[in-house]
Specification:
The chain is built from ten helices and six strands. It is an alpha+beta fold. Helix 6 runs antiparallel to helix 7 and helix 7 packs antiparallel against helix 8.
Length: 385
C-alpha cells in the first residue's frame, strides 16, 4: 500500500538557516566598508566643524525654568537680558500641553543676577505655579560651576575607557581574540557615528546622554557577541572539512541570527519610542528626553553595526591568519577537483547516450524461413512454419 507524503513548503525565513538560502552579507563587505567610511568621515567632519552642544552639567552655567503658559520666548529673553546684562545662550519651550516649560540657559550668573532675573520676569509676566497662583517660586533656577562640569567630563571619559577595556577582555576570553578586536572596532565606530549625529543636528549632550550611550554600546556589543558565538559554533573544527571556507560559515551564522537581531532591536525600540513620546510631548522632562533619544539612535546604529560591519571585519581579520588561508586554499582546490570530476562524468554520460542512440538506430533483419528449400510467397513468417 502506497503511503502518501506531503512536502512542507520551506518559508523564506527557514531558508536563512540553509547553506544556500540566505543573503550574502560577507560577499558585500566592500559595500559595507564604503558606507561605514562615508559615515565616519561625515561624523568626524561634523564634530570638528560644529562641535557639541554641551549641557549645563558639562559647561557650567545657569538655567531658569518656569511654566510656559502664554509666555513668549522673545519677551522673556528681552526681560532676562535687561535684568542681568547677560544675553542668554538658549531660550526654548519643551514639553506639551500643561507640561510645557520655558527654559532660559546662560553663562554662570551670581546669586544677585539670578534673583534679579527671577524678580523681573515675575513682575512683568506674573508667572503662575502648578496650582494656578502667581508666585515668584514658580520660577526655578539651577547653577553649575565650571569645575563641576570639568569633573563630570573626566568621569565620563573614564567610564568610557573602563567600559571598552572590560568589553574587550570579556569577548577575548569568551570567544576569540579576533572577535574581540572586530567587536571593539565596530563599537568605536558606533560611538563615532552617534557622536557625529549629535554634533550635526545640535542635540544637547547631557549626563543622561552619556548613560544612554553606554547602554546602547552595550546592546550593540551584545548583538555582536550573539552573532560571533554562532560563528564560533559554525567554524569549530574548520580544518576537518573542505566544503565551506571561513567566510561562508561566518555568513551562514549571520543569516541564522539575523531575524533574532532584528526582532530584538524592534522590541527594544518600542518602549524607547513610548518613553520618547511621554518625555517630549507629554511631560517635557529633559532627562528622559535625552535618554530616549540616544537609545533610539543607538538601537538603529547597532543593527547596522552587528549585521553589516562586525562580522565582515571579523572575516577580514581571520582571512589573514595562515591556518585560515591554508584552509581556504584547500577548499578551493577541493572544489576545482570536484568540478573536474563532475565535468568528466557529464562527458562520459554524453558519450554513452550517443552510443546508445547509434545502437538503437540499427535495423534487425527478419529471421530466415524455417525451411530453406521452400519459399512462402506472400505469407509472413511465424514460428514453426
Amino acid at each position: 500500500m502506497a503511503v502518501e507524503t506531503t512536502k512542507r513548503k520551506i518559508s523564506r525565513i527557514d531558508r536563512l538557516y540553509e547553506d544556500e538560502g540566505g543573503y550574502n552579507f560577507i560577499g558585500k563587505s566592500k559595500t559595507w566598508y564604503t558606507i561605514t567610511a562615508v559615515l565616519v568621515i561625515a561624523a568626524i567632519a561634523a564634530i570638528l566643524i560644529r562641535g557639541f552642544n554641551l549641557s549645563l552639567d558639562f559647561e557650567g552655567g545657569t538655567k531658569l525654568n518656569m511654566p510656559a503658559g502664554d509666555l513668549s520666548t522673545e519677551q522673556v529673553e528681552e526681560t532676562f537680558t535687561e535684568a542681568t546684562g547677560v544675553e542668554p545662550e538658549l531660550v526654548q519651550i519643551v514639553g506639551a500641553g500643561s507640561s510645557e516649560t520655558l527654559e532660559v540657559t546662560s553663562e554662570r550668573l551670581s546669586q544677585e543676577q539670578v534673583g534679579a532675573a527671577r524678580q523681573a520676569i515675575f513682575e512683568k509676566f506674573q508667572v503662575k505655579d502648578e496650582n494656578g497662583q502667581a508666585s515668584p517660586d514658580a520660577i526655578g533656577s539651577s547653577t553649575v560651576s565650571e569645575s563641576w562640569g570639568s569633573s563630570i567630563t573626566n568621569r565620563m571619559l573614564l567610564a568610557m575607557l573602563v567600559f571598552l577595556v572590560v568589553a574587550t577582555v570579556y569577548v577575548a576570553v569568551r570567544l576569540q581574540r579576533d572577535m574581540a578586536f572586530a567587536a571593539i572596532v565596530a563599537l568605536i565606530i558606533d560611538g563615532v557615528v552617534i557622536a557625529g549625529i549629535y554634533a550635526l543636528f545640535g542635540f544637547e549632550v547631557s549626563p543622561a546622554v552619556i548613560i544612554g550611550l553606554l547602554t546602547v554600546l552595550t546592546f550593540s556589543l551584545y548583538d555582536s557577541v550573539i552573532v560571533f558565538d554562532k560563528v564560533d559554533e559554525n567554524t569549530r573544527g574548520l580544518e576537518g572539512q573542505r566544503k565551506k571556507n571561513y567566510a561562508e560559515l561566518a555568513n551562514l551564522a549571520v543569516n541564522q541570527t539575523v531575524m533574532r537581531s532584528i526582532s530584538t532591536s524592534v522590541i527594544s525600540a518600542l518602549p524607547i519610542i513610548a518613553l520618547f513620546v511621554i518625555a517630549v510631548w507629554l511631560m517635557g522632562i529633559g532627562t528622559l528626553r535625552d535618554l530616549a533619544l540616544i537609545q533610539f539612535i543607538g538601537v538603529i546604529e547597532g543593527i547596522f553595526s552587528s549585521l553589516f560591519l562586525a562580522t565582515p571585519l571579523l572575516v577580514s581579520i581571520a582571512n589573514r591568519r595562515k591556518s585560515v588561508k591554508k584552509h581556504n586554499a584547500a577548499v578551493a582546490a577541493y572544489r576545482e577537483k570536484s568540478l573536474g570530476a563532475v565535468d568528466a562524468a557529464d562527458e562520459n554520460s554524453a558519450e554513452d547516450a550517443e552510443d546508445a542512440a547509434e545502437t538503437g538506430s540499427r535495423t534487425v533483419a527478419s529471421p530466415a524461413s524455417a525451411s530453406t528449400g521452400t519459399q512462402h510467397s506472400g505469407a509472413s513468417w511465424r514460428p514453426g512454419r
